[in-house]
Structure formats: C-alpha cells, structure tokens
Amino acid sequence: MNSRSDKRALLIAGPTASGKTALALALADRLGGAIVNADSMQVYRDLSIITARPSAEEMARAPHFLFGTVDAAENYSVARWLSDAGAVLREIEAQGRFPIFVGGTGLYFRALTEGLSDIPPVPEAVRADLRDWAEGRPAEDIHARLKAVDPETAATLRPTDPQRNLRALEVFMATGRSLRSFHAERRGAVLRPDEVLSIFLAPDRDLLRARIDSRFDGMMAAGALEEVKALAARGLDPALPAMRAHGVPGIIRSLHGDISMEEAIEKGKADTRAYSKRQHTWFRHQAPDFIWVKPEEAEVWVGGNLRLD
Known about the structure:
By secondary structure, the protein is an alpha/beta fold. The protein is built from 14 helices and 6 strands.
C-alpha cells in the first residue's frame, strides 16, 4: 500500500558496505517505493558481484531502476546519469510510487538537486603546465596563486586542499572565468533540496572496515573472479570506469601473473577501505544537507522525519 509523503523523494547515501540496500528495501516496503541507483559502478551490466549490486531476490521486492543498464565499454557520465534519473523519476511518480535514490556517488546526488555547470574542458597543455608548476610545492602556494587571480573561488576552498585549488586554477587559466561563476550557472536539477529528505549512513568505522573485508571475501566466494575474467576477456581500455572498479585492477593483474591472487584480494579490500574514507570526507564537506544517521537507527529516524499520510 502506497503512503503519501511531504517530500518527493528520499536520498540514502553512505560509504560502501554501510547497509544502504537493506535500508532502501525496508523503506520501499513501507512507502510503496521504487529504488533508483545512485552508484557510478552499479550501473555497469558486467559488474554485478564485484560492485555488490542488489541480488535478483532483493530486486524482486521492489521496482529497481538504473542498476546494470550500461555496458562496460561505455564511459558513463554524471550528465547521462542525471538525464536518466530525471526520466526515471517521472516514470516512478506516474506510477504513484515513492522514489528512493540509493548510492555512494556524491556527484550524482549533488547533480540531482543542484544540476550541472557547463565548464569547458581544460586544454591538456594548460593542465600539464599547471601540474608541472605545482609539483613539489606546498598546498598553501597553490591556494595563494588561486587567490591572486580568483579570490571568489579561493575563499570557498581550504588552503590545504591542493587538488581542488589546482582544478580551480586550471579552469581560470583556460577560460579567464572564476570556477564559482560556472557553478552559479548550474542547470538541469530534477529535484529541489527542499523536496527531498537526505540521509548519510554513518556506521562505526571499525565495524565498517570489518564489513568491507568480509563482504569482499563473500564476493570472491560468489563468483567475482569469474566475473572479472569475463570482463578482462573483452580487451577494453583499462582507463574506462568499469575497468577501475574496486577489485577489478588487482584481479586482472593477478590473472596476468603480475601479483598473487592473495595480493589482489588485499588490494581490493584496501582500495575499498580507502574509498569509504573519501566518501565520508566528501559528504562531510560537500553535502551539508545530508543528515548523518547510524544504520541501525536509520529506519526509525526516517519514519519519524518523513511525514506520512
């Protein structure tokens, strides 16, 4: 039975292995919901096991959208996901269901409520010159140079964040415009921030690390090696996003005899743990509208904050 809510959608973000799928399914049962993928790797058809995509049994419990819909040979972008998500949102609402967006890709969630800005590509010559200049310099020097030419953007960035400051410098040197000016021209959002309830699942860090390692072992037992073998046999460009999914590069190196399978598995676990730390950092600094909730408290919390008729 469908429930009506004062919000148009629920956004569930969180680090990998934090319990997002289980929460989304439980809430879909209560809300008459449909689940939309907001994970940049679970979109790929070739990567069901190694990306921990919901199982067939889980997907049978509620309508699921944008899971396993893209071939690994494609370079799927945020812009394409936003277009697809907008179409799916309209379809779900036309069915009288409640949309639940679930994933760990921060840029997808940002695009959903803020849209995208049309920043022209930075010429490789400009990028290379700035990278050469920045190599070995303190992060504060990069920020100081940005502040001299683009004080508006510099004021919004931490001096200790060399990558973001360098990116802003690249945009200014290539276009003569502030990065902030492009952000001000964002368009294409499909939901307003006030139309959504946004939560970030924040499990205990030690427990999360243990869950990541245990889940990776489970994926290997479930056939991840065979899945990656089939992907490797396609001979795709290793720079494609699907070829860089956590676990894939190490397993392919092992298949080539460069490292042992034990080393590949440990690399997959280590890469996933490092990614979970980056997810925490990104959402803490870039997504202030997301409310951090412990996974074991999330279903009750949503029920108390998503007003239902």
